[in-house]
Fold:
Amino acid sequence: MPEGKKGNNYSIGYLAKTAGLTPRTIRYYEERGLLDSIKRAEGGRRVYTDDDLRRLKFIKRLKLLGLTLAEMEKLAEIYWLDRTNKKVLPKLMELLDRHCEETDRRITSLTKLKGEIREYRERIRKKLTDQQN
Structure:
């Protein structure tokens, strides 16, 4: 059995390595309420489960999709009320739609900026050519 794993229970170090996070980040997510209440083993050490690992992977995925921790906290609050995704999934769809729209706006803005950079480079190139002649 790998170091830090005992059956379905993980140490914070093993969980961090498996999830690709730091132990400090995991504790921070726990403090913010993004992880369910963590079990404690003898001696007060945190013990994590497969559910915690899945949740951390889900949090990482949501971060990659552009959700903020505050948005994730709101989703967690909704989930903890009913312990079901029935109300969470529509809210998640709403957040993802908003982030998709924002991404489209940023792409449009960056495409415009790229065109402006190219135009400016051409003006500089022309000035350099004119100076050499």
